[in-house]
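2 proteins. here.
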Amino acid sequence: MHILRIRTAWTPVGDGEFYCPGCGGDRNYQRLTGRRRLTLLGVPLLSRGSTGPVVECAACRHHYGTDVLDHPTTRRFSAMLRDAVHTVALAVLAAGGTSSRTALESAAAAVRAAGFDGCTEEQLAALVEALAADTGRVLGGECGTSLTIELHEALDPLAPHLAPAGRESLLLQAARIALADGPYTPAERDALATVGAALTICADDVTRLLAAARTPS
């Protein structure tokens, strides 16, 4: 029997949903702060200061550091990946133009596979042309400032949560859209290099992957 011991009294200060690394899925959580006390036979005697905050999983009851909340939930991650694929497809189409039916079909197939089930070639073409009109950008031109910003906004939050193979897969998917109607144009290479940089893929690996995408599997 422990006569003297340190006990922590936890107080909830917030809640929400997070990806629990212990459970391996999305769970509810409570954010807790605690006060440590020295107890004698279970009776609190002296304050030993505060501790926490911590995140407690509502399912497994394990405690984690608050940095666990930086990891997106499964639902949030799926939405981030879906939006990233959509943005990348638009960027590649803007670089190559929307006159190629095969490129539009390849882009639409990639976007549908990412989660936009109803995406059509006509919708993508209309979006690309609307973006060009809004920014004053010429279709088929190099990746401008506005498009570069959009790519970074979509890819910067996602990249840290993708394994290297996942980041490379996203770039290869973009490369195949560009190659659907023939060899890379300079504007397409520029857009793909911007995608690679936003995915934190080094320039040498971007060159390697773009060359690999040209080789039939």
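next one coming up
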Amino acid sequence: MRQQDRLPLILERLAQHGSVSVVDLSAELRASAASIRRDLQVLEEQQLLKRTHGGAMAAEVIYELPMRYRGGRRQEEKRRIAQAAVRLVDGSVHSVGFNGGTTITELARLLSTGRALKVVTNALNIAADLSVRPAIDLVVTGGGVRPESYELVGPIADRTLSDISLDLVFLGVDGIDAEAGISTHDEIEARTDHCLMRATRRVVVLADGSKIGHRAFSRIAPIGEIDMLVTDAGADRAELDRIQAAGVEVTVA
């Protein structure tokens, strides 16, 4: 296993248990103790953990993996979700909004159209991908950079979104629950996401199965403000039924 594949797994174990040992990681990841120690050093240099004798502990409570370590997780599921979602951008859709996240990034990469399409996003990585496509009229919100997700958030982004109107918004979230609604890890990001929702007539949430029934720290909106959820077959069926009963159209990719 390559180091770039081991690092997110180490951070996941750290988030789950609060500490990790070189011996356990070496056995689980089938890597030498020396390789694991180098991995821990890399993560300590990024201030994501604190090394201890024989292992490491969380430098602080880890609520969210940085996006650079999330790209390879559940990749096939995210690709299927994106493929189902891109079909919603039909001839009746002339303007689209994206927030950030790995599944929304997959969708943006699939966006290919021979006609003019207005796209509004607060995600720097998505803006970079779309800026070279001549058929896309791209608008970037501005705002303060949130490095964990590459998103622009805060009052500047919120003011930009308050003055626009979109046909369709695709929203990535960290949790969706029939009672709690949709949520994310950061309260400032949650407000900007809600401003993006208010700019459109239709909101489509993209969330892989691990996020169904999950509640993150900050609520973006109640379930009643969502029109459609696109997820994968790994989602909890009972929770999907509750979400559907709340009036949300559910598509399983």
